[in-house]
Amino acid sequence: MSYCTVPEMFYFICDKYKDTRNAYGYKVDGKWEFLNHDTLRDKVECFALGLLNLGIKKGDRIGLVSENRIEWVVADLAIAAIGAVGVPLFPTLTPKQEEYIFNNCGASAVIVSNNFQLKKLLEVNNNIPTLRHIVVINNDFKEDGVNIKAMESVLATGCDIRPREQRSSIIAEHAAKIEADDLLTIIYTSGTTGDPKGVMLTHKNIISNVKAAREAVRFKEQDIFLSFLPLCHSYERTTGYYSAFSIGATIYFAESIETVASNLKEVKPTFLTTVPKLMETVKKRIYANMDREKESKKKIFNWAVSIGTKYVRARQAGKIPMVLKSQYKLADKLVFSKIRKKIGVEQINFVSGGAALSPAVEEFFFAIGYSVIAGYGLTESSPIVTVARYDNFELGTVGSALEGVEIKIAADGEILVRGPNIMKGYWNDPEATRLAIDEDGWLYTGDIGVITERNNLRITDRKKDLIVSSGGKNIAPQPIENILSLSPFIERCIIIGDNREFLTALITPDFEQIKALADNFGIGYSNPTELISNEKIISAIKQDIDRLQKDLAKYERVRRFKLLTEPFSIENGTLTPKMSIKRHIVERKYSDLIDQMYDRM
Fold this sequence. Notes:
By secondary structure, the protein is of the alpha/beta class. The protein contains 20 helices and 26 strands. The protein is globular. The model has no long low-confidence stretch (mean pLDDT 93).
């Protein structure tokens, strides 16, 4: 496998598998349809030729604003094949955000998914002087014949220009001119502060990451992936898309985040790239369902989880007593096998990234019989830096560095990374590049961590998020937030306490669980939001928080909290598109509530 660019990888895999395997599966009108490598290649080459016909050339920046779908893949591979630079965006961005990004990168063309996305772009396209073409994937718009075209018509034009053999020859010729150090993509970091920065990733960056990650996780061509995370995010793009494709695995696109549970049962994937939030939700639902069972069943469940926990810890230590093996086998028969049957898949590898995974959640999934592969990275590192290994897993860590990647811990605890996966820099921002990567090539990640005795990396927090109390204590909020989020009553929380005497928390409750609690207490209500001020509800949540944080140091414990009426979301500006909390926005938005928590002395 000597390929060095994404087009070389694409042609290598398409030549190897042709029509012998399905590359992709996706739903059309409720039924699964499939695309083999030969048909995929033809579509990519036709669209690539259609882009060339529009005047798109090597180095041009091409925006891509779409939900996950097979056309996203066709567009991305076609853009790469002609040496253009893809600029994928979250489809949740506002027109003004799109205007900033497309002006910043000087986009020549933008591909959008539907009429809704087109209307957003048309609000600002007159303010983007470089924008010459808009291509729409769906046929739900009026084509003006000049600037706005249907993807179908661009693809058809590419097919009509030359016979298939000549099309392949033309696109292969363009692909051959692409070098490893050429730009493949510019990915704009959503950022929790300030304007987004364009991360420049080369073909070498991505391909080095794909090859190293594939070997570390041991993907096989027989594997089946279910993809639901946004392809525009570097994590899913590299792991669930390029890496899976590079080994000849079949990738299914989930219809939406809401259908992941049903799609799991239909597809029965061997790999699911996911985020901790989904795994936390699955665990909470299992416990919530168990709470509705009779006491005898709860007792068996709790016994099984206890045995499963001991089994996982013994496995981590490298020695499982025979008695424990027998107990676990019984626990699996009585409880865990039934949980897996209800989930709908007997064996699966959960590849967790994008945020910190709670050790308790990780341990639970191992206990019920699934594999969890935790990893760590950032867009600037293409994105994977570390990944857990099957033979050296260690709860609460994110594994060890990929082959060719170096890690060191700075004097202040910051994680530094160096290797072939490190970005070329930030687009048109040499000063930000200089601050991020030093003269020796070390990327300053902004994360705080330690290397364990088993050579695994443990992330403790974001450097900029560290809280310094008025008493001078350094407190990492993220581990505390992860612990509190284990409560069935808490959807999300954010810890407050910088320059304060003690810690407080703003909590978005799980209203389904809050309503169940109200029903148990016999509390009447006309709207669930009324319940957040009920003293019995608040007291029950406080008891659960106290239970969860009993092993924390006193200065790490939350002493007061406020329940919020609305969840953190992209729409209200409190979450980034990759679902990270914008702490400064939250603190500003709820400053009055925060002051109330500290005024009650």
